[in-house]
Specification:
By secondary structure, this protein is mainly β. It has two helices and twelve strands, in the order E-E-E-E-E-E-E-E-E-H-E-E-E-H. Pfam families: LOR.
């Protein structure tokens, strides 16, 4: 399933990280609800499950850490039936000064990092809440794959643009939520 752009909104919950995924409507605002994601806080092994709606009665995809300590490990992305459809990981060494991630899906591999080196450094040495996170992912052949842009809001809200039709919505959504959850925003 391909979706050229969507929003990820973090919702407040006491014991979990919750996210809502919305397609971008024709007017540029939130359109159809595409899913709801939930991550338990303080889990020994990171896992996020995406559901079809607020009732959380039907899980539709997920991502899960390969190992308990995730410094160089990674996260497998699974479809509703449990088949792997993608993978992403943080590049720990390159992320010391500028967060860098790698992602794989059907027919592509890509790397992405924070757009601004200056903002990346400021984020590491200050606790300024207005610093936004912007990631650009480029496919191995050099073409733009997707971008994730955080807007300045009380709760995190991201706009995800996916110009490459090879990128399954579930892989893009898992990566966008993973960026937020793993960077502890």
């Amino acid at each position: 399933m391909y979706l050229p752009s969507f929003f990820v909104k973090q919702k407040f919950a006491m014991t979990t990280n919750r996210y809502e995924l919305y397609a971008v409507g024709p007017d540029g605002n939130e359109g159809q609800l595409m899913g709801v994601a939930q991550q338990k806080r303080l889990a020994f092994k990171e896992e996020v499950t995406f559901y079809s709606d607020e009732s959380k009665s039907r899980p539709v995809f997920s991502f899960k850490a390969r190992k308990r300590i995730d410094l160089g490990s990674g996260y497998d992305i699974f479809d509703e039936a449990g088949a792997q459809i993608g993978f992403f990981r943080k590049d720990f060494g390159k992320s010391l000064m500028r967060s860098t991630f790698h992602v794989e899906g059907a027919g592509f591999t890509a790397s992405g990092q924070e757009r601004s080196q200056a903002v990346a450094i400021l984020r590491r040495f200050t606790d300024l809440p207005f610093l936004s996170i912007h990631f650009d992912f480029v496919a191995s052949e050099g073409t733009p794959l997707l971008s994730v842009d955080r807007q300045f809001k009380l709760r995190d809200r991201y706009t995800v643009q996916v110009p490459d039709q090879r990128v399954d919505f579930r892989v893009a959504a898992a990566l966008a939520v993973g960026l937020d959850a793993l960077m502890q925003r």
